Hints:
By secondary structure, the chain is of the alpha/beta class. It is built from nine helices and 18 strands. The protein starts with 13 loop residues before the first strand and ends with a helix.
Amino acid sequence: MMEKGMPDDGSLAVDLAGIPLKNPVMTASGTFGSGVEYSEFVDLNRLGAVVTKGVAIEPWEGNGTPRIAETPSGMLNAIGLQNPGIDVFLERDLPFLEGFDTKVGVNVCGHTQQEYLDVVERLSDASCDFLEINISCPNVEHGALAFGQDPAMVQSLTEQIRKRSKKPVFMKLSPNVTSIAEIAKAAEAGGADGISLINTITGMKIDIRRRCFLLKNKTGGMSGPAVHPVAVRMVYEASRAVKIPIIGMGGIASPEDAIEMMLAGATAVAVGTANFYQPDLTIRIIDGMQQYLEEQGISRIQEIIGAVREAA
Length: 312
């Protein structure tokens, strides 16, 4: 029987911080649930990995409605990381994913450092393959400043999580910073096995007829094709600043977008907003990558990782 997550012919296989992926395509947290909702549209066995919705130590209700607004070439969301908490996740969601031949990454969120550490410790002996730490969460102990906006805070939190985790740790970085390279270096200095970027860009939309905010939260996270060029630039800058692998995401809506992200320096890619309007896009991207290799005469997808970066 094939080992869980191992590649078929190897041409699309990548090594992600010691984790063998059959291909570099995974799902972006918050856009795929825990795979249950999409399993009738997508063969989860074909994915390199499924990254779950954020998991907190206790259930989070999320923000009030309305909390989603469409924008040109994208969307705004202010879901507020609604989730049922770690107990339900371990009892219901993770066992479901165990039935598939794919790697599993669990996105972890928290309001305080201790909340992160509590979830990480609960997951240490779980069947998941890696943790993705959402450091765009507001730190209530520091005036609601997101953990990921302060390099010193990023390094400190990463160090504490790394000490307690038995799983590879990927810090998910916010684009709402002055220098993504400095944040990436802080995560690396803290011992992160890798980084994920980008998370959503803070945005706002106003209804001009009703003269009110479209989102009850006023602001939300912008995602979708409109942010892709920003994401590619940040992946490129981060890849030049650190030696640890990168999961690139942000507006990926085609095989070409995913390949572009890998050329910029990403070892793997995650598809997010596009899942909502094209549920099987991850599979189309995998097939498109295979076709690209054949057309370009490239034997392994790993050959293109950072090719633009190396040529610069």
